[in-house]
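thoughts on both lines:
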Amino acid sequence: MTQPPQGFGPPVPQYGQQYGPQYGQQNSQTYGVTPPPPPHPPTVQGPEFVAVDTRNAIAVDAEGVTLDMNGVQAEFPWPEIRSVHYRASPNGKALMLGVIHLDGHFYEAVVDAKPKARLTEWFAQLAWVLRHYRPMG
């Protein structure tokens, strides 16, 4: 292959030679500013359920189920969960949610619903979120 005359066509690449500074490098050298780190890959987003009272909390999201009981957290990723069950407390004023781990252990959290009508809202939202992550086949 013949080379075009000097000044015609794109420049011929010189292998092993770096062309100019990398993105952000010029600013950091010129102005003493460190370029920001590259953005993290986006996390998987999906519906979430959160119920909180003054001592306890329950969260259900794309990662799994988290129970917080008096400041002690237990996290259960979906692959480690055999099943999730929920119901109203005997007095009808709290949400009781239980997680059965693959090894058969049962974990439960109770979150007070104030006002009491909030329990109905939680049941509707929780049912929808659980169906999203654990569809009945």
